[in-house]
Amino acid sequence: MSNSLYRVSTANQYDNALRNIGQRQTSLSNLQENLTSGKRVVRASDDPVAAAQAERALTRISRIQTEQRALETQRNAIAQAESAMGDAVGLVQNARELIVNAGNGTLTANDRATIANQLQSLREQLSEVANRKDTNGVPLLGALGSALSPFLGPQSTSPDYDFNGLEGQYSSTGVAIPNTLDGDSAFMFQPQRDGVYNASVTRGTGSSLVTSAITTSNREALDGATYALAVTATNVDLAAGTTSLSYTLTKTAKDGTETTSTATSAPVKTGQPLPITISEGTDTVMSFSLTGTPVLGDTITLQPSASVFSVLDSAINDLRSAPNSSAASQAVGQALANLDTGLERMHNMRGYAGELLNRADRITGDQEKRSIQLEDDRSRAEDLDMIQGISDFQNQQVGYEAALKSYAQVQKLSLFNFIS
């Protein structure tokens, strides 16, 4: 058996000891930094893969926060728009109640004029509500884009109301909702979609002619044309006890083309309403009835209403100019039918605004879930297991203390201490 003997110099021994102590000190310092920061990955060099995963998670969380700030702005705008639609509905319902009251047969012309003045005030308020803006000065009902005042009219150049913008509704996405509503769809009428018509009567001497509310069908064929019906004869069959009406019908298309035809209404029992139907080819496009006493020279103009504002203006003008309660009843019946169509569209738009707010809540909930998931991903990638970290730190601390103590003892040993 042989023994191998080798000599380690004192200087080399000291250098090795110092190097090991320095490494332990560095490791202890790193563990202390991990504990104080609560992170396993303090620098990208600690774990490049985990650092990249954590950075991606943080980037996505930041994007979600940005999207949520934008969504909150959109939510506030839609909430204001929904409130504006609620105010508009309330104003139109108040106007409807006044119009119903105006149909009272005991009212005088002055009473109806007073109601018309009240309706005028409500119509002006409705225009202000429809043109309401958000806190940034953007019209709440500006559709796809509009002027600062989307609804204009009536003006000298335009006797009716116009939507001064691009109609339509922005769509929602998975992280955003529109910040405006389609005011054109809420307040403006389209001939082919709504078919809302207003009848005005120019009465001859001794006439008490009154029209009922107008019913439209096949609105594509109507296409917003204007009709003028002039009474040419009242046909009374005394033997049969029936009455019919002969008239000339002039149609003015949207492009200004005029066509004239003659027709006779179906005979009915004398004293009963006279039914009038207007046809395009074989299709009936409009129907209403006439009551009272028609005379030669009576003219009925049937014109499409452009908006809820137009309906109110027509009701105001008809009530102010109504010569008697029968004419006032005609204005009331017509206005109520047209306002109900407008209210239906306004209710639909307000309901859509409510659905957008619900959608915003759902988006917020989904984004919160995503944020929690991404935060978990980031935590798994870079956060420190505190129990494991404390254990490693304590073990490293014990090792460091042992290295210091052993070095302190070994450095006192020297061969010269034992040479006499």
Summarize the model shown.
The chain has 420 residues and is α+β, with helices and mostly antiparallel strands. It has helices spanning 10-37, 48-102, 109-130, 183-187, 219-222, 308-321, 325-382, 386-410, and strands spanning 146-152, 162-165, 197-202, 210-211, 215-216, 226-237, 242-252, 258-264, 268-269, 274-280, 283-291, 299-304.
Let me know the number of strands.
Answer: 12
For the largest beta-sheet, the strand count, sense and barrel status come to:
6 strands, antiparallel
> Overall 3D geometry?
rod-shaped
Number of helices: 8
User: How far from one another are the termini?
Assistant: 33 Å
In round numbers, the mean pLDDT is 84
The proportion of strand residues reads 15-25%
Give the fraction of residues assigned to helices: 40-55%
Gyration radius, in Å: 43 Å
Q: What would you call the structural class?
A: alpha+beta
Return the string of H and E elements. HHHEEHEEEHEEEEEEEHHH
Any low-confidence stretches, pLDDT <50, length ≥5?
A: none
Architecture blueprint of SSEs:
Elements: H1 10-37, H2 48-102, H3 109-130, E1 146-152, E2 162-165, H4 183-187, E3 197-202, E4 210-211, E5 215-216, H5 219-222, E6 226-237, E7 242-252, E8 258-264, E9 268-269, E10 274-280, E11 283-291, E12 299-304, H6 308-321, H7 325-382, H8 386-410
Antiparallel strand pairs: 1-2, 3-12, 4-11, 5-11, 6-7, 6-12, 7-8, 7-9, 10-11
